[in-house]
Amino acid sequence: MARPPGLDQMIAAFKRKEYRTAARLLNPLLQSHGNDPWVQVYAARLHELSGKRAIAEPIYRKLLQNTSSPNPKVLNLARQGLERLEKVDRDRRKDALDEARKQAKGQGSQRNNAMFVLEPLPEGGDRKAAAQALARVFDLDAYSARLQIPSREWRVYRLGPLAELQIYAQELTAAGLSCFVAPIPAIQKTKVFQVRYLEAVEPQLIVVCENESGQLGRIEFSWDEVTSRATGDLPLFASVVDLDARGKLMRREQMQDYAQIMDVHLGSRHTILRLVDSHYEFDQGVDFVPVAFLEEKNHQQVRPTRRTQWNAVTSFFDQQLPNIPARDQFETFAASVSDRDDLLLDIKSHLLLSRRHENSIDSAYHLYSALIAWHQSSRLQSGA
């Protein structure tokens, strides 16, 4: 295939580092032969030299992916261009990380005081591009990076010093990958109140609850104070006697039921109001079960089941907060922290469940809820 006229002069100008001349010669080539690989690779190089990385990188990648008429020399130039861009990123990242570590050391900051959280891609998001960005920043292969990007719920990807993780987050956010960094101390400071029952729902809501010391009291709030909600089902276990392979009696724990939880977050107060079906006192305060829910048997009203009563309570909150749906993907989130004892051991569960042994899933749920509360409160404060 014949080379476009004027191409050799433009390439010669590049070799002489006469970039203004090269740009002047390149402009008519872009108009007459804009799809020519040689023209494209030198256009990318000019953008690279001008600091327009966001324009140069996609051109280099597109040239490397073009298998219809590969040109070894063009491919080599595109590959070198990407390597230069990645080296600039690595050097900049290294300098920023070194400075962050230096400052943290001077301030005596503890390590692993923050979480780096990956968010699911929005609908129609470019998963391949997101994986490439994650692979570049964290030095992963493309396949592993693709597997790390969540599709439904947040994934706690890494623990580390706050300043360092913020550098990674800034770079990935600029590349279009949704992520954020949450300081663990802020999560731990969230206040939790166990709701016994709702005493009133108008003109203000009044909940009777107990604090972390078990002291009973009341909290009054309005609907517009609710910034987010979370729900989760946590397994409950019971000790049962069974026979082992030799026919001998043995004691083991067996999952019996689930505890249903709904957390209501009051962002400005950094507070979680926690409702648990097994601890909610349905016979006190506001009766959420309408007459239509009551069954009749032998012409006598039958007391509604606990499940019916719990569903009525949660439905009431759903009706009053249609624009603040409860996040309900705890099981998916829990999978990303199930092996993070270095994180969960520092997270108090704030759950009053009957357990013979500590269960990390309780801490995982509190982390899930408190992280949602902190993130939404931070977004509202920043005006996002």
Structural account:
The protein is of the alpha+beta class and 384 residues long. The chain is built from 13 helices and eleven strands. The protein has helices at 7-15, 19-32, 37-49, 53-65, 72-107, 127-138, 142-148, 162-174, 184-188, 306-320, 330-335, 341-344, 360-382; strands at residues 114-118, 155-160, 179-183, 191-200, 205-210, 216-221, 226-243, 249-266, 271-276, 295-297, 300-302. The strands form three sheets. It has a six-stranded mixed β-sheet with strand order 6-5-4-9-8-7, with helices on one face. Helix 2 (19-32) packs across helix 3, helix 5 (72-107) runs antiparallel to helix 8 and helix 6 (127-138) crosses helix 7 (142-148). 26% of the residues are buried. The mean pLDDT is 86.
Question: What topology does this entry show?
Answer:
Elements: H1 7-15, H2 19-32, H3 37-49, H4 53-65, H5 72-107, E1 114-118, H6 127-138, H7 142-148, E2 155-160, H8 162-174, E3 179-183, H9 184-188, E4 191-200, E5 205-210, E6 216-221, E7 226-243, E8 249-266, E9 271-276, E10 295-297, E11 300-302, H10 306-320, H11 330-335, H12 341-344, H13 360-382
Parallel strand pairs: 4-9
Antiparallel strand pairs: 1-2, 1-3, 4-5, 5-6, 7-8, 8-9, 10-11
